[in-house]
Amino acid sequence: MTAPALTYVYAVTQPTSALDAALPTLHGIGQELLRLLPSDGEGMPLVFVVSDVPEADFNETALKNHFEDLEWLEYVARTHHGVVQAVATCAPVLPLRMATVYQDDHRARQALTVQHRAFSARLDLLRAHTEYGVKIYLTPSTTLEPDQEATVGSSQPTSPGKAYLRARRAQQHTRESVYQQAQVAAQAIEAIAAHLTTQRVRHAPQRGALTATQENVLNDAYLVPDEQAEEFQAAIAEVARRFPDLRIEVTGPWAPYSFATPPPETPDPAAPSHHSGAPTAHREPP
Amino acid sequence: MSLIANDGPLPDRQVALVDLLDRLLSGGVVLTGDIVLSIADIDLVRISLRALIVSVSSETTASLAAGGGSDES
Questions:
Q1: Per-residue pLDDT averaged across B25-52, rounded?
Q2: Residue B15: which of A9, A81, A210 has the nearest Cβ?
Q3: Cβ–Cβ under 8 Å, residues A139 and A214
Q4: InterPro entries in the record, alphabetically (chain B) (predicted)?
Q5: Which domain does B39 fall in, by range?
Q6: Partner residue facing B33 (CB), from A101, A214, A229
C-alpha cells in the first residue's frame, strides 16, 4: 500500500509452526496480508498479529465517523473476527478489542513488550478453554401486543374497551409468568455452570432491531474447559427443552473475547466482571 | 484452545452481528493505541448503534433462526 498506513492489531498469540504455515493464506482488513510482530519481553515468546490499514480510514476523526456506519462496522468486525478465529485454530489467542491501532510496527511492538508478562499469564490461564455464550429470549408469542392478544382471546368481548382491558390483564399475567420462567431457567443454567465452567461474564441484554422480535433477558458468556465443552452444551440444550416458552441459545465456540482482560477484583468464578449490565431475567413488566 | 466443536455452528454459518459486537466492543484486550477511542466513545457507539439499527432495513437485521447477520460483501 502506498498511501500512509497505520498498524492494526487483531490479537496476541504465541508463534507456532501451524500459525507460520497458515499466515500467508490469511488476510486482514482491506485484504492486506497479516504480519507477526514479536515482543521483546522475557519468557514465553509472544507476537502481535497485525496488518496495515489506511491512515485515512483509521485516524481518530475517520474512526469516529466510521463507527457510526453500520456497514463499515460490520465489515471490520467480521474481518477482525475472521482473523482471530483463524489464528485460534493454530495457537492460543488473546483477541484485542476492535480498532486497536498504532502509528507503526515499532509503536505496536513497544505496547506488546510492556504488557508481555500480563499477556503471558492470561494466555496460560485461558489455555485449553473456550468461550460460549448463553442467551435467554422471551419468544414472540409471550410478548404479544395487547391488540394482537385481544384477537386470540376466546371469550366474547362485550365492548372494545373491556376486551382491551381483559387482554391487557391476560398479557401482563403471561409476561409475569414468562419472566418467572426465565429466572428459573437462569438458575438452572447457573447450576450447570458451577460444575462445568470456570468464569462468567454478564453482557448487557441485547436490544434493538438486530435482535429481531425476541426480547433478550440474559446474555452471559462462560469460559469452559475444552474437555467439558460437549457436556456443557448438552446440559444447556436439556434446560432449553424444559422451557418451551423461552428460547435458550448457546453461541460459540468463541475465542475468549469476554475473558481477555482480567476482572478488576479477585477472580471468583461467579463474580461478574467489569462488563456492564446486570442480569434482567427478573424484571417488572412494563 | 480448539475452536472445533462437534455440535457447533457450521464454519460457513455467519455469526450474528449483535453477538460479535458484544465481544469486539466490550470484550477483548483493551490497549491504548496511538489512535484513541475511549471507552466512552465505544459506549457512545453502542448507544448510537441502537438508534441507528432502527433505521436499518430488515434485510440487514440478524435472522436469529439462521443465526446470521447481513451478507457483507
A1: 68
A2: A81
A3: yes
A4: Gas-vesicle_GvpA-like, GvpA
A5: 25-54
A6: A101
Q: Using the beta-carbon criterion (under 8 Å), do B28 and A58 form an inter-chain contact?
A: no
Interchain contact, A130 vs B52, CB within 8 Å: no
- What is the band of B32 on the pLDDT scale with cuts at 50, 70, 90? confident
pLDDT of residue A263: 66
User: Which domain range does residue A37 map to?
Assistant: 5-126
Per residue in A188-204, pLDDT (tens digit) is 999 999 999 999 999 88
The answer to whether residues A182 and A241 belong to one domain is: yes
Residue reference for cell 457447533: B8
Q: Are residues A114 and A180 in the same domain?
A: no
Residue A217, in any domain of the structure: yes
d(CA B35, CA A255): 25
Low-confidence ranges of chain A (pLDDT < 50): 1, 146-147, 149-150, 265-286
- What is the model's pTM? 0.76
Domain count along chain B: 1
A260 to B19: CB separation less than 8 angstroms, yes or no: no
